[in-house]
Amino acid sequence: MAHEVTYATTTGREDAARPDREWERRTAPPGRSVLISGASVAGPALAYWLGRYGFRPTVVELAPALRGGGFAVDFRGAAQLTVLERMGVLDDIRAHSTGGGAPLTFIDGQGRPLAAMPPEFSGGEVEILRSELSRILHRHSLTPPGAHRASGSHPTRHTPGSPPGGPATPEYLFGDSLSSLTQTADGVHVTFERGAPRTFDLVIGADGLHSTVRRLAFGPEQDFVRHLGYYVAAWDLPEGAGDLGARPVGYGEPGRLATVGRIPRRSGERGYAGEVFCVFASEEELITDRRDPRARKQAIARAYEGAGWRTPELIGTLGQAGDVYFDSISRADVPSWSTGRIALLGDAAHGATVGGMGTGSALIGAYVLAGELALAEGNHDAAFARYERTLRPYVTRCQQGGRGAGEFLAPATQEAIDARNAALNSPAAVAAMLQQGHDISAALTLDDYPALVAAAVRARW
Predict the structure, then answer these.
(1) For 437-450, how does the pLDDT look when each residue is reduced to its tens digit (9 = 90+)?
(2) d(Cα 399, Cα 358) in Å, to the nearest integer?
(3) Hey, CA dihedral for 211, 397, 343, 195, is it positive or negative?
(4) Hey, is 189 helix, strand or coil?
(5) Buried/exposed code over 37-47 (b: 16+ C-beta within 10 A; e: otherwise)
(6) What spatial distance separates the first Cα and last Cα of the chain, rounded to whole Å?
(7) pLDDT, tens only, 321-356
(8) Run of H or E including 421
(9) Which of 387, 386, 327, 399 is nearest to 360 (CA)?
């Protein structure tokens, strides 16, 4: 992995730090305002990097505040950990780690163990609650530039990789969303559901699998998102749930799985009793309004009617549950991640819901996209093209894991369940599955964008 001010030969940019290139003799790009839709993970990460490179990022988020709840996400492989380190958040993430993925025991209807899924399957090299990660990234993006710097950079009078006096603190707009995007020769005119219209030089959709930016600028969701035949749901147990979450177990029947357990990291939270995670098969679209909490709960309850073990007790806690996560296991395939001055990032471009290393891929994508924009000297077309060329082979391999997640967790037949359990009881099969995941996560070498941008800035100034 490169840590010097050079590019790997595969990028074709070995001369990126040479002062005789025309773009390095220019002043700052004429337009640097960027609207980012989505404040979960990819959005704040991109806002951090763009702010450090002298852009003026604005992040708009539909929710009234940073979202709470959500299950744990993990990072694995040198590329993902290197990006976290260069952002300066790796230590903070480790300090808020769940302690790694919890082992999960698959049980029969009498609660007897059938097979065990090791913690490495879900925990990666570091695991953190998505809500904790979102708070860390948001806070980090707003930290004054002089208070921290990207890992490996040297202290200077201004943030490395940005023009003198250039670093910008992102603007966050909560409780709003986009209603239209109109591209012109000089920018993108944006109307909001609540706020006044504004014009930005660039717009980035970091707003998830059901991206508003993708719908407005690229076309309807059904043109790009393919349902993979499963749904996933998660919610916290109510305080009076008794011993339901006492041990991490999963009970499965053909086409449906319900797991319950507790995350040690949350054990000190008042009223915390554990959480439920469900995966079930359905080829049909179950609800038309994902924002309707009653519709989500009703769809989950119908999917588990007649299930054995203590599943009725688990489903019964839905009535007292607050925030319930519910979505299809789907995959986004967008032929081109950009159109004009608008581009997609993270799940909006290449989501896979579960098992596709989406969180780590989104942070890598934010790092690459911001770096390419900073090096492109205002040529967003070239930056978007290089960003996609660098990242697409990697995320395409990662998506393959998402494709099989539902079939692995909730096999469609009893024979398939038995085969899954037999594989988990085989040390050789488990080692092979873990190695496959390691190979996918390691299949990317990153350029040292902070150093490259710093070199370009020194040459210009």
Answers:
(1) 777 767 788 999 99
(2) 8
(3) positive
(4) strand
(5) bbbbbbbbbbb
(6) 28
(7) 888 889 888 999 999 999 999 999 999 999 877 765
(8) helix 414-424
(9) 399
